[in-house]
Structure prediction request, 409 residues.
Amino acid sequence: MEQTGFRAMGTEVELILDVPPNGWSPGIFATVRQEFARLESILSRFRPDSELSALNRSGRVHAGPDLVRVTELALAARVQTNGRFDPTVHDALVAAGYDRTFEEVGALGTVVATRPDARCGGGVSVDRETGEIVLEPGTHLDFGGIGKGYAVDRACDLLAPYGPCLVSAGGDLAVRGGSWPVGVDAALELTLELTSGAIATSGSDRRRWSTTRGDAHHLIDPQTGAPSETDLVRVTVVGRSAVEAEVLAKALFLAGVERARAEADELEVPAVLTLDDGRILLAGGLS
Amino acid sequence: MAMTSHTGRLYGLAGALFAFFLLWAVVAAHPWATPAATSDPRLATLAQREKRLRADAALVQQIVDRRFAAYKVALAKRQAEIAAARSRAAASLAAAPVSQGSAAAPSVRVVTLPPLVITKTS
Prediction:
């Protein structure tokens, strides 16, 4: 079992590869690390030279395949979740005070929150043939969560040929092959054994900060343009990929406990729901 | 007799003044000038030019109206094409799985093993 860790995309990344000591090349970990750095340089809204920042500045860009793919995935997710997952929450995040990296927001102490009702749901069009992405005027994108999920999936793609692997980055975790016991954050007594697919956790208990309007967190409800208020503190979802799990976790979190439970059961999406009163509910076939 | 002569001179003076102003009025009226000589040729040129410009403007308006009508037809057609394309794109997005590649269905179960890793909240 080989493993390494490094920091990327504002979180700790952990790579585990189940291979015999002499049956692999350590260079693959460096390759994965470079891939994380490359994707961050494309998808980060905090880097002024990223493709995403160029798109947000000009409203139109001829993008590379990764930005095109992530944009397509995010738009598909917006349709499939009826807008509960929406990449156009950028302005709402900025309005809530999340206008710089989370480390920098945390270092500020209390930040100034402006419009609590920033508009979401703006139009985005993608031309896969030409790579052109066009934003409706006033629309800006944030790929914070889905970008990390995309990177985790890419990392698994790179590691999988060498053997069973696990990649974890913040709330996104994916495995390929093998059998991996994964503890669910707060419910430390609960362990899920994952042999394929991914787990993502979205919650309002992390990435919180103080603002002039009170406490805020990063899970924006696109309908209100403000940090969501539900009776859930955290949702952990198992999906086919980290991107899918990330999207479903956010969508179920915004749905609130009753609807999230019903949807998880209906869609047969294994989910762990942590309520604001501390209770934990299993849904989607988990028991 | 002297008085008669004085009165005669007054009448004479009045008559002369009347004749003078009458002559002045006649001269000021330019009775010898012909109607053609009173119209300025520049005015006539301007009038012709105005007429020509009005005709040109009417022609241009016709062309603009025709082109705008064609543009409105083309715009309606284009908008219909865009709406159809958006509808197709939305249908295609709705049909596409929110995952990369052809990921297999996840396999998970609750176990009592100690965890190898612990998920965090994003």
In short: The first helix of chain B runs from residue 2 to 28. Chain B has three helices and two strands. Helices of chain B lie at 2-28, 35-38, 41-95.
